[in-house]
Structure prediction request, 203 residues.
Amino acid sequence: MTTGRYVTFEGIEGAGKSTVAALAAERLRDVGMSVVEVREPGGTTAGEQIRSVLLDGDAHLEGWTEALLFAAARAQLAAEVIKPALMSGSWVVGDRSVYSSLAYQGGGRRLGIEAVEAINRQGLGDVWPDHVVLLRIDASTGLDRQDVEDRIGSEGAEFQSHVAEAFDLLAKLEPDRFTTVEASLPLDHVLDEVMRGLLGVSR
Prediction:
């Protein structure tokens, strides 16, 4: 049985992850790939319920509460959607993944990247992104570009800067897994860079 490939799009608020992920999935289908799109948190019945808590602007969550809720939603998504899709030979295109928790909770919340990785490994096992597309953008610019401000998106530029630093560190630590693209460039250029990273081609 041929397994698929798990690709995730990462970055701070306003980097354009959802838009670029959807367009990349479209291009992958254009070249004959079977593609399953997922978003985090969410993507399952349980995950969507957890999402409503995590993004609720009126909710006060401690850092580890937040990290554990993200990990729980992610474990369910991996078991229910991602792993079966990969085993069927499909590509999985993710709007965020475990790397968001490593950056946001590990870096932004100062819980520690290794500590947050450890709790996620328990739930994910071998379901780990094969390729991470990091869309880089200045924190202030990203916040200005937000369509909808949620609990985490309302944290402000200083928090987003800490998250961006964590993403940059992760990319440096795993250069073979990451493709980094400047998200402030025109969308067509961003997408071409993304596809070169995924397939080695542009269109």
The radius of gyration is 16 Å. The chain has a mean pLDDT of 90. The helical segments are 17-30, 45-54, 63-87, 98-108, 113-124, 139-145, 157-173, 187-199. The first strand starts at residue 6 and ends at 10.
